Structure formats: structure tokens, C-alpha cells
Amino acid sequence: MSKTRASFWAVVGVLLLAGCAHKPAMKVDNSEQPYRIGREDVLDVAVWRDGDLSRTLPVRPDGYISMPMTGDVLAAGKTPTELAEEIKGRLQPYVQEPRVTVIVREVNSSRVFVTGEVARPGAYPLRGRVSLIQAIALAGGFTDFANSDGITVVRSDGDVGKIKVRYSDLLSPDGGQDVFLRPGDTIVVP
């Protein structure tokens, strides 16, 4: 390689590296939101060195748990750490330096509902990120009478309301994007 070519490539390399140095780094958000306890979840509440106060408790439909000495404690909407701190505060008048741990044993509050012309309508647990196509597969797929291009996803959180989906669009190469479900969503297949 001639000196001129080598010098040219060296200058190009320096310019490329200089350009990269001024480009702002892309920020990737890998943070996960802490889990919030929901109604019908099952919790393990452990009070260190006090087996009488440690127990496995279901979260009632009203969002509360009941424990000796603390009475009813609102659990729904709190993180396990927040709930442990509240229980600890309520136990302090009765237990010297209580150490409380709350572990979610069963997640029962995050569900989606599939109804209409599917093989197995019902409630299905929402474990991780579940798409509309995956939820229909969990429900056994469409029946022979299903109108797969008339699907409606009803949002219970009031964010969007109703989302109309054509299944054929989801499967086409240039079609629409799959809908990712949220807890409490209801999928209606006419």
C-alpha cells in the first residue's frame, strides 16, 4: 500500500473516530418497575424469630391482608418492601425491633380474559409480556364460527378504552403491530 493511501485511510479513521466521540451515547432503559401487589395474590409474611406472626396470607378482594397485632393492612398497590415497612411499623409497639420480609408467593392478580369464539374462553394469567396472538393461542385458538377480523381488546385501565384488531393484519408481512396486553384486558372474539 502506498504512503498516500495509508495516509488517506489514517485520516478517514481519525475522522470517523472523532465523529463517534461527539455523538451522544444512546441511553438504554433496562430498569424494571417494582412489582405492585394485587388483589388475590398470595404473600409470605415472615417476622424474624417470631413464628406465631409469620404466615402465608391471601390478599382479599378488597386489597387488605389480616394479621395478628396489626389488624387489617392495605396490601394492594404496594411493593413487597413498602408493605413490609408498614407491617414493621405496626408491630413496633408489640415486638422489639421487628424484622419483616414480604415475598409474593403467587401472582394471581395479573390476568387477561378471553371471551367469545375461542376454544377455551376464560381468565389467563399474565406472566411477563403477553401479546394478543399469544393470548388467543392460550385460549386454544379460534372456533369455526369466529370472526377473526373483528377482535376487540377492551382496556380496563381507561387508557385506551377499546382497540379494534384484524387478525389477518397481524399475520400479514406489512400488517399492523401485535397488541401487548395489560392486566385486566378483555379480548372479545365475535
From TrEMBL:
It holds the Pfam family Poly_export. GO terms for molecular function: polysaccharide transmembrane transporter activity. It comes from the Bacteria. Residues 111-162 form the Soluble ligand binding domain. PROSITE patterns: PROKAR_LIPOPROTEIN (PS51257). Keywords: Signal. Gene3D superfamilies: Outer membrane lipoprotein wza domain like, wza like domain. InterPro entries: Poly_export, Poly_export_N, Soluble_ligand-bd. Residues 30-104 form the Polysaccharide export protein N-terminal domain. Residues 1-23 form the signal peptide. The keyword Signal applies. This is Capsule polysaccharide export protein.
